[in-house]
Amino acid sequence: MITTSIASFGLSIAVAGDIGVETPYDLKGKRISWIRGDDALNLGTEAMLAFGDLTWDDVERVEFPGYGRAFEGIIANQTDTAFTVSVAGGPQQLAASPRGITWLTLDPEDKEGWQRLNDVAPYFQPHKVTSGAGISKDDPWIGSSYPYPIVVANADTDDTLVKSLVKVFTEDYDKYKDAAPGNAGYALENQNMQWVVPFHDAVVEYYKEIGHWTDEMQAHQDMLVKRQQILLDTWDEYTAGDTPSDEDEFKAGWMEARAAALEEAGMNPVFR
Question: Which class is domain 3-145?
């Protein structure tokens, strides 16, 4: 990874404003959207449920064929929630409907709730959201987000190129921050220095040079690099063997081997 943007929007569950839900703990028994074939949205929803110490067994799962249909379903009173980004069109439509919209408050001081959420989806982080449907700087949402966009490179990408990129993003920030609405997210103070993707070695070198690197960050970086190596070694071992010719069986076998290798190393597989 080279750099990321954490801007003013958030990512979480949008909730119909007429059912009295304020936090994930209030979702028990509610109708929760599940999107067919969309693992990312469904895992995000599962993470929000986990914050409230809930699982899919504690709610009514309502299946939809796509993201847009889920918001149509909320407005039509067929479901109560949908996972989304706060600045998308769906939340705006819901906010303008008779049901209205509310966003789940994710108290950053609720350490146990955040631990449960991150056990399911470690890429989320607390965020004060100021852009989106029913949200403003004067009426922010204390919710969640994760970096987007993310500037990435292969580990063997030229060090000079990578270092030049992160240097421009960091040192020329004032020159480009107002050029587009999301650019503020690239500020150095907005970088999550202990996220889920390791930094390129040249990025680490740059942060050390400017005094923005700690022993704790290095320990986290080392763990992420070790995790990547475990995945690479496990993939090589899995594909070198007698793997199934059936695509679904191949995928299931890989996910099982992947999870076993990470758990043996004391790491959370996250995806299964």
Answer: alpha beta
Largest CA distance in the chain: 60
Cα dist from 136 to 133, 141, 204, whole Å? 8, 8, 35
- Helical (H) or strand (E) element with 150: strand 150-151
| Angle, in degrees to the nearest 10, between helices 201-209 and 215-240 | 180
Name 3's Cβ contacts closer than 8 Å, sequence gap at least 6.
151, 165, 166, 169, 170, 186, 191, 203
DSSP string covering 101-121, please?
Answer: EEE----TT-HHHHHHHHHH-
43 by Cβ neighbours in 10 Å (0-12 / 13-18 / 19+) ranks as: middle
Q: Which tens digits make up the pLDDT trace of 110-156?
A: 999 999 999 999 999 999 999 999 999 999 999 999 999 999 999 99
Rounded Cα gap, residues 28 and 13, in angstroms? 14
Q: What phi, psi does 31 have (nearest 5°)?
A: -85, 115
Separation between Cα atoms, residue 152 and residue 165, nearest integer Å: 11
Nearest-10 crossing angle of helices 201-209, 159-171: 50
Query: pTM of this prediction?
Result: 0.92
For the chain, the domains span 3-145, 214-272
Distance CA 262, CA 237 (A): 14
Please state, in angstroms and rounded to a whole number, the distance separating the CA atoms of residues 11 and 53: 19
